[in-house]
Amino acid sequence: MGTADxxxxxxxxxxxxLGVFPESLITVIPYxxxxxxxxxxxxxxxxxxxxxxxxxxxxLASATNEAEITSVAVLFERHGVILHEFRRGDPxxxxxxxxxxMLDLLRSGVIxxxxxxxPPLDAAAPDEExxxx
Length: 133
Ligand SMILES: [Zn+2]
Hints:
By secondary structure, the chain is of the alpha+beta class. Helices cover about 45% and strands about 15% of the residues.
């Protein structure tokens, strides 16, 4: 890989330190978004992702809100990581425990979430488009 490959990479803003990094240095992790009241996929640089993932782990470990816990399982599914216990409707505490184990796998690099393809911006924000007419 030459420098040309690096410059062709997408540049990603780290949600932790707000620095801009090539996509290959970014780790995708679930992180609680209080505005959305659910976990969302966020992008973190090499320095920020471990402490941020620890925050997610700590918060999830004591979570009792079913929708909040479910949002982690849905997020993993969107990235192609399927949790059988969630799929078959196991009780929330069981799902929460498994999700904690999945976060451990993320931490150790066994699970790696990709940013993947993004929808076009005009499709991603239909409400704002409609508001103008
Ligand atoms: Zn960062």
